Structure formats: structure tokens, C-alpha cells
Amino acid sequence: MLFHSSVFLFVFLPTVFCLFFLVNKFTKIDSKLILIISGLIFYSWWNVYLTPLIILSILFNFYLSKFLINKNNPSKKEILLSIIAFNILFLIILKYLDFLILNINYIFNTNIDFVNLPFPLAISFVTFQTITYLVDCYDGNIKKNNIIEYSLFIIFFPQLIAGPIVHYNNMMPQFKRLKNKFINKHNIFLGITIIFIGFFKKVIIADNLALIADDGFIDNNNIDFFIAWLTSLSFTFQMYFDFSGYVDMATGSALLFNIKLPKNFDSPFKSTNMINFWQRWHITLSYFLMNYIYFPWLRYLKKITFTQSMIVTFFVFIIAGIWHGPSWLYVIFGGLHGVGLIINHTFNKYFDYNLNKFFAWFLTFNYVNITLIFFRSKTIENSINLIKGMLGFNDFQIVLLTDLNFFLISVFLTAIIISFCFKNTAYLVDNYFKKFF
Fold it and tell me: Is residue 1 part of a domain?
């Protein structure tokens, strides 16, 4: 079930909304159960046969997390590492097993058959969110838990598909507040507005930009300069409006139930360096990478040099790349972002000089745009062909606007204007919509 589908917007979401508040008003049943059941239905819509996997994962991690909450357990660290290892292994088997087999066959010239396991919905987000929960239990940030609250933390449908990655202690107090059990007209109007913004981003902008991008990525052996740039930029803006649109719809849906999800995007295409970009792009993923991989890795090294920290940065972004999917192109994407961050940190360390703001933005945006070519392409050859076209190695044929689809070009220009000239949804929520409603 997709957020922009009619069944979600006009059947599922209104039904869950009504049941949630009717149960709160007229019964003594814990309304969190309504959200848990609705989350399972939402999850099952993707593939009902995979639902037992998410249930088993919830039960496994919940009951083993009790050993981490126990202060007097001398084996807490070993238990934490074992549970995290199991979750990562679970992720690898379900998402990356055929990718591993493909590479083994290539390296050792073997012919191992692919397993072709079905891909569970949102398993990467669920895994990262589970890890945040387990570490919080280990650190003593979670003093007690119960199966209902933990299940809701994992299966709450607004943030199940594409995040944001949330913390248990940021979410559960919201569900416990008495005032949040009653309809809040302010949050309803605000939530519906944000859902509409997300729907517009996804359906009107992202899906139409995909029509431009898809043509350029399918057959680009001799793609000319103009079309190559139009293709790459279309996908860059498609990627942003697709993902941020989904997050907006998740944020708006959660607000209907009086739940505020954390900000996940902050106008990333206005960034003037790669460090700033990752402080604005997919903010909760960046936070996870820093606090659950980067800093623990550095603490393990104990004596840290600048070179070591940069090597760790590179490999953290290799992990970020492969997290997106089982492909070497995602690894290249992550590696390029790691290299970009290393260059950024090195420049800051050794050069006491500030680049012109516009020039810094120009470099950052175009670097991100080029890295996203590898994210979208099906093959490395496909990526190189497009980059060659962008560099002018192919034809410089001038394309007249009259030769292009007027509507799609209008969408493309609208995406540019919104990205660079307007405030983002989070800013509008905090500084305008709240006051208006």
C-alpha cells in the first residue's frame, strides 16, 4: 500500500483514524492496539506471506532486549552485539543473499543458483530502527518496556515505508499523553495540508520527472549534451521530491494521530558543501550513521588520527550506499559521497579560506547530481555514457523547447523553483502553518 494510492488516502487512513479515536472515546481498549493491527495490515498489503517475518522479528528483539535493560547483567555488551549481529544477518539474508551469490559466482567462476527470496517491505528501515532501540536499552535510556509499545514503535505505519528513523523515547511519550487520545482539529488541518504537499511532490513532480529521466537512462549510448543534463537533473529532482514527498505524507499521516515525527529534510539542494548536504539530506539516516556506526568505530580505535577518521568516514558511506540496495552502483554512490566528505573535511582542516558561496553551492550541487547518476543507472556503462554526454563528448545538438513536452518541462522548471526559491515543508510547518491553523 503506497501513501499516494487511493486505497490509502480514501479508505485505509480515514478508517484507522475513525477507529482510533472512537476506541479512545467509547471503550477502555488500548487504542495502540488499533495502530498495531493497522500497521500489520499496511505491511501485509505488500506481501501477506512475509508478515510472519516482521512479527517474529518484533518478538525476538523485544524479549532479548529485556536482558539489555537489566543493569546487573554482566554480559550486556556480548548480548547487544549478538542481537545486532543477528539482525544484520537477517537483513543480509533477505536483501543481499542473491547479490552475494552473484559476486561469488563471478569471482570463483561457480554456478550457484540464486535463492530468489521475496523482499520484505522496509526491512532496512526496520533494522536500523531496531538497532537504535537495542542500543538505547543497553545505554539505560529505556528503563522499562512492554510488547504493545515496542510493537507500535516498529510497526507504526506512517514511518514504516521510508522513515524517518525514530527513537523510542521520542515516540512513546507522545502515544501516552492523555490529550493525544482526542481529536485535535489543529493537527488534522496541519496533517492534511502536509499530506497534500507530499502528494503534490510525489505525484505531480516526482512521477512526471521520472518520465524524463527514464528515457535518458534507458538508451544513452550517444546521448547529446542537452538531453544528458536534462536527464541527470530530472532524476536528481525526482529523487528528492519522491523521497521528501513520502516523508511529508508520513509526517502528515502521523499528525492526524497527534504524533510528531522528526524532520528529515532541510532544503538539501541549497547546501554549500558536502558536510552541510548530509546535515540536510535524510537527516535521521545521517544521525544514525554518525552515532551508531561512525562514533562507535572511532571509539574502538581509541587513538584517532585525522587520516583514520577519514578512512572510517569513507567506509561508513560505503555502508550507507549498500544499505540502499544490493548493487555495486549503490556502493559507488556511497563511496563517492565518502570521497566528497573527505575532500570537504581536508579542505576545512588545511585551508583557511572560504569559497564564494555561489561557487561552493555550484560545486556541491553538481557533485551530488553526478553521484546520483550511479544511484539510478542499471550498469556502470550506462552511468559513464551519461557523464560523457554531460561533458560534451557526444553531440552538442541544440534542442528547442518546442521539440519537448511542454508539460514535463514545466514540471522540471517548477521543481527547480521550489527547491531553490521556496522554504521547505518543515520550515512552513514551524513558522507558518502552525500560526495559520
Answer: no
DSSP state, 29?
S
Q: Are 145 and 62 in contact (CB under 8 A)?
A: yes
The continuous run of DSSP H or E covering 381 comes out as helix 380-390
How far is the C-alpha of 202 from the C-alpha of 161, rounded, in Å? 14
* 159 and 205 fall within a common domain: no
Instruction: Let me know whether 177 and 243 are in one domain.
Output: no
Range of the domain at 221: 188-436
Q: Residue 81 in contact with residue 64, Cβ under 8 Å?
A: no
First to last CA, the chain: 30
Positions annotated as catalytic residues are: 324
Q: What is the pLDDT of residues 88-144, one digit of tens each?
A: 999 999 899 999 999 999 999 999 989 888 877 788 899 999 999 999 999 888 888
Rounded to whole angstroms, how far apart are CA atoms 286 and 332?
Answer: 18
Domain check: are 213 and 282 in the same one?
yes
Taking the CA atoms of residue 51, residue 55, residue 56 and residue 62 in that order, the dihedral angle to the nearest 10 degrees is 160
Same domain, 342 and 257: yes
pLDDT 10s digits, 252-284: 999 999 999 988 988 999 999 999 999 999 999
